[in-house]
């Protein structure tokens, strides 16, 4: 993070504590000094605050969109902290407001079609509500600036789109997750193997691409940390179940040497093992879960469910 980015980050944090009158004063100052980026960052941060899934402050939809529009029109290629901060606001707006900001981004793209940073910023913002357009922008951005870390963001949006997609589009999106994920892993300087391999493996399992799941497991095993090793064993066990090798799946579940982390893949495996008639190894896994990661009441409920021959819900 550059010195300027660090300053903006600190300003954004302090802005959330400003009173309404203090913010009104900053907004008046901004009318006099429209190019004062420090003030812009504070106003942006103030109006981007949320309560739950909605913007917190009155008129925030209009106020925040005005700030984003200014950045789009004046600094569309902003990098680092503010580039990220702006892009993650794509889910904040009502449809009409989002459509106007989307159009503003596309106008900048048409003016600067070879600016990889701008293309990436536009893609990350638009992806929240228009994944198809964003996909094209992500690909163009990666072509202009390969190995920039952008594919990780693209993969996250691919996975989000997959979970919202109609049934007819699911397999196509799974293939897209695998393609983007594998390319993201090749960017060694920026990839996040744990998340990338999780998204890839989930998609590959559903498509029967066990070779890809095995490849991801090898990558996770090379990380050597507790969570990655447990995840690798979980996905290898799910493959074993699909190949009718129940004993290997049980062996892989019990392979974790330390206390279990509450990983989704481990709970998914436990549910599938339960459906296959297994009980003892699931109980052993529950008893060996890290105590601070799950409530005692949840663990007790799961054990009771198994005792009653009910599939544990693994809600915690």
Pick out its properties.
two-stranded antiparallel ribbon, 17 helices, elongated, 316 residues, mainly alpha, single chain
Task: Provide structural commentary.
This protein has 316 residues and is mainly α. Among the domains are: 1-145, no CATH class; 244-316, no CATH class. Helix content is 70%, strand content 1%. It contains 17 helices and 2 strands. It has a two-stranded antiparallel ribbon with strand order 1-2. The model has no long low-confidence stretch (mean pLDDT 95).
As residue ranges, the low-confidence spans are none
Give, in spatial order, the strands making up the sheet with the most strands: 1-2
Order of helices and strands: HHHEEHHHHHHHHHHHHHH
Beta-strand portion reads under 5%
Write the layout of secondary structure elements.
Blueprint: H1 3-15, H2 20-32, H3 37-47, E1 50-51, E2 54-55, H4 60-74, H5 80-87, H6 95-111, H7 116-126, H8 131-144, H9 150-164, H10 170-186, H11 193-207, H12 210-223, H13 226-242, H14 246-253, H15 264-275, H16 280-287, H17 296-307
Antiparallel strand pairs: 1-2
Short description:
It contains 17 helices and 2 strands. The protein has 316 residues and is mainly α.
